[in-house]
Amino acid sequence: MKPRWLAIVGRKGGTGKTTLALCLAARYARGGRRVLLADLDPQGSATLAAGAAPSGADLAAVLNGTAAPQPAAVAERLDLLAGGPELETLTAPRPLRDALAGVPADVVLVDCPPGHAHLDRLALAAADVVLACCEPHRLAIAGAARVLDEARAHRPAPRCAVVLGRVDERRGLDRAAPDLLAGAFGLPVLTVRQDAALAAALNAGGLPPEHGRAAADLDAVARWIEGTEPRKGTP
Amino acid sequence: MNRQDKARAGMLAGLEAGHAQAKIDRRLAAEADRGRAVGLLDLEAIRPRAGTDTRPARAAHVLTLAESVAAVGLVQALAVDKAGRLVAGLHRLEACRLLYLVKPEARAAHLATLDGADRMDPEETRARLRALPVSADLPEPLRAGKVPCRVLADLDAETDPDAALAAEAAENTARKAYTSAEVSALADRLRRAGYRDGGGRPRKGERALRPALALVLGVDVSTVRRNLNTPEKPAHVSGFSEAAARLARALAAFDRAAGDVALADMTPAQRRAVKDAAALADLLARLHLNAEGKEA
After folding, report:
1. Residue A171: closest C-alpha in chain B
2. Phi and psi dihedrals of B113, rounded to 5?
């Protein structure tokens, strides 16, 4: 079966990209899927959060064509290709799908960095699904709009959605934001509520918890993703 | 308007700013792609245009272009297909060939093969050919017989003439967008090489700056006039789209400076960037609301 490629983008930093990538990766792995988490962030956030060192050699070397992909096992059925500072220096990277062809996976999750349009482009070109993380704040929305404009211009066009994270329903603005943004973006807006247990688990270096507010919301995100067919005719 | 309404307007303003930034991203990516594909090719390696519909190069145009190439070099790259056949830039190529011949009699013989050479004033043409630089004074990389060329690696002009025609049209319209400062710098170089501004028809022996600059840049004379007459404008917000563009730039600076750093950990410069971005975002929100008010 062809893997489904998900790009987690946002362009602005601190909007929950890595958290969403880890949550989805853990959820799919627990559900019996084989997951490859590709950390495209020069800061190596997903790599650090998963407890691996950001060597920088891994994904950067694979994209440079100097090494074959050798993902590290993070958990059962969850492998990680580490990101790191060398990703900043890529000049003529291979397309992600070519570079990672042959890595066994049902789902490939690409965690994109903040502020790197050229790295985002690698993920957008590979993605069946693009999830743009943002918060009910104009700077985060600007970042999401910026990268989604580019994603929607790609052919074949990936399926796109906005993921509004750390939503606190006690705040009026957080309650109003999903409808406002769904209208403004013309895209589905999926919400993930603020979850102290999730923040604590990631802070402690563990995987996201199986249950809780955020986990429940991620079920809806996963259901929306399930409606996407993997791209035909490509590795 | 209450605080909630203002915040909602701010979120929508953020969306507009993101769209504006995305446009800049696309332009920069396209320019980078075009820049990457430009390399230096030997003049001799460039093959004639494919097909039978080859327009002959006009002699007068080639000589004028050769004078400007001698002064500032070849600014707009030629385009060739994957086999090195010329796709766009016939006059530029002929101008480079003319210059590279170096000897006045060889240059004259080459010019005579071009279209309309017999209609040029022989005395003036000889003088202009003599005034062209000798080998050592040719601009680089032409001195070494090389010209900047964009190689369209996916195009075979012989088997796909339609695509070649489309590529030629694209090459001739998608020229690099020069800033006023870049145009001014090129104009200065042409002035130093003896080109003169000023309206009206140039006197005999004089070379007019604006047409030469238009030729070098591959744009029309009115674009050159606009560029030369437009000084770098002081910051002035006159409407929504301009504010959006300014905000886009400030936000890009914010992105670079701030990243994931907490406000308390930022340097003063980073904090200033955050503050500027926020101030511009407020401005944009206000303009956005004004625009909405007018529409309503």
Report:
1. B4
2. -80, -10
d(CA A224, CA A189): 10
Q: b/e per residue, B247-284, with b = 16+ CB within 10 A?
A: bbbbbbbbbebbbbeeeeebeeebeebbebbbebbebb
Q: Look up residue A16 and give its DSSP letter.
A: S
CATH code linked to domain A4-226: 3.40.50.300
Residue A133 confidence (pLDDT) = 97
In terms of CA atoms, which chain A residue is nearest residue B9? Answer: A138
Q: What is the structure's pLDDT at B153? A: 77
pLDDT digits (tens, 9 = 90+) for A120-173: 999 999 999 999 999 999 999 999 999 999 999 887 889 999 999 999 999 999
Q: Where do the domains of chain A lie?
A: 4-226
Burial class of residue A223, CB neighbours in 10 A (0-12, 13-18, 19+): exposed
B277 in reach of chain A (CB within 8 A): yes
Distance from CA of A157 to the nearest CA of B (A): 16
Cβ distance B73 to B100 under 8 Å?
Answer: no
- Note the pLDDT of residue B290: 64
**C-alpha distance from A135 to closest chain B C-alpha (Å):** 10
**Which residue type sits at B69?**
V
Per-residue pLDDT at B137: 83
Q: What is the mean pLDDT of each run of 10 residues along chain B (296 residues)?
A: 86 92 85 74 88 75 90 86 89 92 88 92 90 84 89 82 78 64 78 74 71 77 72 52 66 60 69 72 65 50
Q: Does B279 touch chain A (CB under 8 A)?
A: no
CB contact under 8 A, B11 and A153: no
Tell me whether residues A149 and B281 touch, CB distance under 8 A: no
B residues 229..258 contacting A (CB < 8 A)? 251, 254-256, 258
pLDDT of residue B233: 45
Q: Please indicate if any CB of chain B lies within 8 Å of the CB of A184.
A: yes
Q: Do A184 and B13 touch (CB under 8 A)?
A: no
The ipTM value here is: 0.86
Residue A219 phi, psi dihedral angles, 5° rounding: -60, -40
Note whether B12 contacts A137, CB cutoff 8 Å.
no
What's the Cα-to-Cα distance from A94 to each of A123, A127, B116, B155, B199, rounded to whole Å? 11, 15, 50, 21, 53
| Chain A nearest-CA residue for B16 | A142
Interchain contact A143–B (C-beta under 8 A)? yes
Query: Global pTM?
Result: 0.59
d(CA A87, CA A120): 12
Please give the residue of chain A at the shortest CA–CA distance from B249. A142
